[in-house]
Design a protein that fits this description.
Helix content is 84%, strand content 0%. The chain is mainly α and 101 residues long. Helix 1 runs antiparallel to helix 2 (25-54). The longest helix has 30 residues, at 25-54. The radius of gyration is 18 Å and the shape is elongated. It starts with a helix and ends with a helix.
Length: 101
């Protein structure tokens, strides 16, 4: 999933760059916002890998439960981040002409 996310993020960045080059600033800001949200999501994935690597089966039960609770909280934050991108997707294809007419 991380490799798909990295390719997806690169694609979003290219679309934002092309939109900026075409002076479609409304589109470029929306795709740029989605790009930033997905980048934060990828950083959270790497944080998950870090949390998983810290868990050892020989550790104390309380320590393992604490690390698992941190992982769970981080997972819920990731879900919230993905939901935050939905408004940007709904208006990213609109132009200023469509809004003013």
């Amino acid at each position: 999933m991380v490799s798909i996310g990295i390719n997806y993020t690169i694609t979003l960045n290219l679309v934002a760059f092309i939109a900026t080059s075409a002076e479609a600033f409304f589109v470029s800001t929306r795709f740029g916002a989605i790009f930033l949200i997905i980048t934060n999501f990828l950083i959270a994935y790497f944080y998950h890998f870090y949390l998983i690597s810290k868990i050892n089966s020989s550790d104390d039960v309380v320590y393992v439960q604490k690390k698992l609770s941190q992982f769970t909280i981080s997972s819920f934050k990731c879900v919230r981040m993905t939901v935050n991108q939905l408004p940007f997707w709904s208006i990213c294809w609109m132009s200023l002409d469509a809004i003013y007419k």
